[in-house]
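Narrative summary of target 7.
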Amino acid sequence: GLLLDQGCLKKLCIIMAVIIQPLHGLSTTSTMPRHRAIIPQMRSSKLFLASTAGNEESSMKPLTVVIVGATGQTGRRCVEQLSGQSNVRVVAWVRDRARVAEAGISGDVEVGEIDVVSSSRESVRDEFQALGKVDAVICATGFSPSFPPDPFGAFRTDFLGTAKLLDAAIDAKNVDRFVLVSSLLTNGLESGQALNPQYILLNAFGGILVAKNLAERYICSRVGREGALTELTYTILRPGGLTNEDKEGAIVFSGPDTLFSGGISRDKVAAATLAAVTEKTACRNKIIEIVQDTTASSVSFVEGFGSVI
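Modeled conformation, tokenized:
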């Protein structure tokens, strides 16, 4: 019975990919880089502060970081780790302002109620332009399965919403960095992981990983195609299975389609995301997979990001 169910789900995922992916005809390049790891020796918020302290321009003018999906489990941790820092202007974009207090967002955080999925590309662009110079946009949005099921929810949120956010950031011409929090196994069909239980499970809820894969491909294609026309650069982080609790082990860094299992705490994902904002040279236009491993050795974020080709 399990084999039959997996076969059916595999066919469903393949059908979705065949129907959706040719709409864009985009591709990414897979590499097999050396694995690296890090155990942060301080709280990630302090790490972020330390990484910008030596930059004279940053010390004179605060960095502006927009976190989209700020009330989500990962987004709120990014906000928390940045809040209260004198050198960072934190802007939290949320779909529902009523959830801000529940997410623990307070203090000097600027909150904007913006539903990227339902908003027009032009209106999102205008929101970016109203902020002045934006050093980085962190996209921590994601579709949450609901009842009754929404078969196209993941496609609208994880693909179309992310693509619109990127388009608006490029159109605004004032955004330097785009950091996407994605997931392991997004390219499962092409990397031989169609029967991986996690790939089957997540795609059973409206093709979540297929939609995320389309978003990744769109980002790589759009920035790559227009690299000469925009200064915006990207980093795509693919974390393993997420836990709300702290987890033992260093962070292992690897290139796309090289890690197919493993977990990582959301706090560590937030730390890596914020490091991707400041260490932009080491992770410029890269897809980086991250999990935690108790047997991994410790290196810096710069070295870990830099080890991925």
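The CA atoms of residues 282 and 306 lie 5 Å apart.
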